[in-house]
Design a protein that fits this description.
The complex is a heterodimer of chains A (113) and B (112).
Chain A: E1 5-7, E2 10-14, E3 19-24, E4 29-37, E5 44-49, E6 55-58, E7 61-65, E8 71-76, E9 85-93, E10 102-103, E11 107-112
Parallel strand pairs in A: 2-11
Antiparallel strand pairs in A: 1-3, 3-8, 4-5, 4-9, 6-7, 7-8, 9-10, 9-11
Chain B: E1 4-7, E2 10-13, E3 19-25, E4 31-38, E5 42-49, E6 56-57, E7 65-67, E8 73-78, E9 87-94, E10 102-103, E11 107-111
Classes of the chains: A mainly beta (113), B mainly beta (112).
Chain lengths: 113, 112
């Protein structure tokens, strides 16, 4: 079942605004990844995090692996129209062996020009 | 490299018909996955494979079967399609279980 809570479910923002979204869980994760899905396409990796406390940037995007290993956030600065899409967090549970990543339900981002 | 490819891109079935979706990857990845995506439900794992000749159930396996006869291919079968299987299906692959999954472009399936 669903072990990741991703919020918010959707956001409507003005172009130029900053965006923040997060994923939380009651379980401990070894890995956090953030994906973006453009309309009509498959998800594409934005940022991968492998250590608690890790803070990684990719252009205007910044993601952090929470210290408790139970959460992660993604920030987008100075949003532009092409940021529109669905953002997914994904993680691998601690001691889960070779089981697949768990995905959040996504945050749908709309940018108003 | 083509990455992950899926065929077909679109398909319309009648209830009770069968079909097979094909996923192919050219990255020599061990792990392959099939997901379905429905509005508001995110990506739900149907079946996955940790290597050639292996398959395992995911979150929503009922009504689907899979086979991994060759390392580069992962087939998803619907034996008797139902309207509840109307969805967008994504295939993905990865080198190891906790690493980036590369996704295909998706197959949009409608069951009438």
């Amino acid at each position: 079942g669903q072990q990741l809570n991703q919020s918010p479910q959707s956001m409507f923002i003005q172009e130029g605004e900053d965006v923040s979204m997060n994923c939380t869980s009651s379980s401990i994760f070894n890995t956090w990844l953030w994906y973006k899905q453009d309309p009509g396409e498959g998800p594409v990796l934005l940022i991968a995090l492998y250590k608690a406390g890790e803070l990684t940037s990719n252009g205007r995007l910044t993601a952090q692996f929470g210290i408790t290993r139970k959460d992660s956030f993604l920030n987008i600065s100075a949003s532009i129209p092409s940021d529109v899409g669905i953002y997914f967090c994904a993680g691998q549970l601690q001691d889960s062996g070779n089981t697949p990543l768990v995905f959040g339900k996504g945050t749908r981002l709309s940018v108003i020009a | 490299n083509a990455g992950v490819t899926q065929t077909p891109k679109f398909r319309v079935l009648k209830t009770g018909q069968s079909m097979t979706l094909l996923c192919a990857q050219d990255m020599n990845h061990e792990y392959m996955y099939w997901y379905r995506q429905d509005p508001g439900m995110g990506l739900r794992l149907i079946h996955y494979s940790v290597g050639e000749g292996t398959t395992a159930k995911g979150e929503v396996p009922d009504g689907y079967n899979v086979s991994r006869l060759k390392k580069q291919n992962f087939l998803l079968g619907l034996e008797s399609a139902a309207p509840s299987q109307t969805s967008v299906y994504f295939c993905a692959s990865s080198y190891v279980s906790n690493d980036e999954q590369f996704f295909g472009p998706g197959t949009r399936l409608t069951v009438l």
